[in-house]
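Ticket #581: bound-state structure for zinc ion.
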Amino acid sequence: MARDSRLGTTRTDHSLGRWIGSVPSIVASIVAMFANGPSIRLLPRLDDDNRFFWTGGKDGVLRFLKCGSCHQLVHPPVPVCPACLGRDLAPEAVSGRGRVHTYTVNHQQWIPGSEPYVIGLVEIVEQPDVRLTTNLVDCESEEGLIGSDVEVTFEQHDEVFLPLFRSVDSSKENNS
Amino acid sequence: MSAGPPLERQAAITGIGQSDVGRRLGRTDIDLTIDACLDAIADAGLTREDIDGLATYPGAGTGMAGFSGPGTPEVQDALRLKLNWHDGGAEGPAQMKAVIAACFAIAVGAARHVLVYRTVTESTAQGEGGRQGIGGSGDGGSGSVPRFSGFLQWTLPFGAVSAANWIALVGQRRVHEFGLTREQLAHVALNGRRNAALNPKAVYRQPMDLDDYLAARMISSPLCLFDCDAPCDGSTALVVSHVDYAADAPHPACHVNAVGTALRGRPSWDQFDDMTTMAARDASASMWERTDLVPSDVDIAQLYDGFSLLTLVWLEALGFCGRGESGAFVDGGSRIALDGQLPLNTAGGQLSAGRLHGFGLLHEACVQLRGDGGERQVPGRHEVAVVANGGGPIAGSLLLTRGSG
Ligand SMILES: [Zn+2]
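RESOLUTION: The complex was predicted; output attached.
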């Protein structure tokens, strides 16, 4: 597995099994207190409504449906804007920045072989009422997680790019 | 509210019944269901010829093995019922949906005596394997592994596979926003265990103290093992009758005063506007909008405890304390004890008596209103009870009052 930091993408070698998925926790590049997710990734079934979302990571970009009339982000994807009932919706890139609304550390072996991992609920900065259930990766501590700033990083499984989130390194931000 | 009393007051619970309840009983769901149904019909002073309506939640073939119980066709045919109205299905105001639908059927004259039941055989189905995640069924992926559509596609890839995870997210938000502690949350479980000791049918009756609770393994923080209910086998049934029959029933009827059915926020585990409460807020609000009774009139509360945290959510949603105050409300356990200000989950709840999936709580509300609680009977006044079921985007409630009789 190699991380392409430019794209914020974590790629996984699938040669060991078609559906076993990644074991990103074992080879995480920094010492993390928790695994980056379950031992096996159960994956979405792609269709014409959700494909743009689940494959956006190919370009390193998180996308949501956006209303062409009132500019609301609409999630999960539906063919109508719930705000203005407009029907002109199209995928639109967002910054990939978010804020942790809440989280839980999962310990139960729902998926055998999993080490404790952090499930996060992340608000998208462009529209905080749009949230993603996700994993908080490279997580070193539970301290101060809620309300902290995060950014998307993708983990590839076949054609699916799962949007995961990691803490924004504020010192790096200040230097850039 | 429109003019006149709400139509659910045309309905009253006149009979209650319950099969054996336990771990791995090894009996079929229809077998247990027949026990409960015949028990309820007799308790109502009726025969099967009187039953003209039948309802269940969630209907056959829903969810994991052992979850749904038999559907209405199977029960109708087994008892050769001649029905004017029948209903089964999972969408609606939680498990109470079946009871609420029966009330409405009676109110519009579609039926006079509706048999309502809920059966689980999750303990036998799960065997020794313990609690399962929500697997659901997916398809269309490469290879032999299923892929997932609908809501599950947004959670399963991230290992958020169980309601325990989804509710833990609510719990951790409450820790952050309200300062909820594990020591406070523990009292929902400890109260249940204390009451279960007085319930011969409860599946967990051995004493448990705060140290036992705090030492339990974590499931999904802040929820530990004792915050999760106990899968069991059992069937609960009741007869909902037209209120005209209440005075003729052998036992005091439990009158339906108001139902709570609303869902005004988004019907979603992770997109709801307030992640500290969810649908319980809306169902509760709609229930109080339909009655002149107020929270301080309630003598007994049977509040859903599929996870202990949900009981806290319901306590606030129903107005027994302010938003964020439920941790302090249950702290120490005295307020919610049998002799407390608001006796709660008096048969042990699902955490200790077993996961009869809402209907155990409803059954116990009726037992208490009748004054038949025996050792665990709430002392003093027992005129008004509230039953609330569900978690996340699923919620329904019932306000019951004791009839003279
Ligand atoms: Zn719009």
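RESOLUTION NOTES: Chain A has one domain: 2-44+95-175.
TICKET STATUS: resolved
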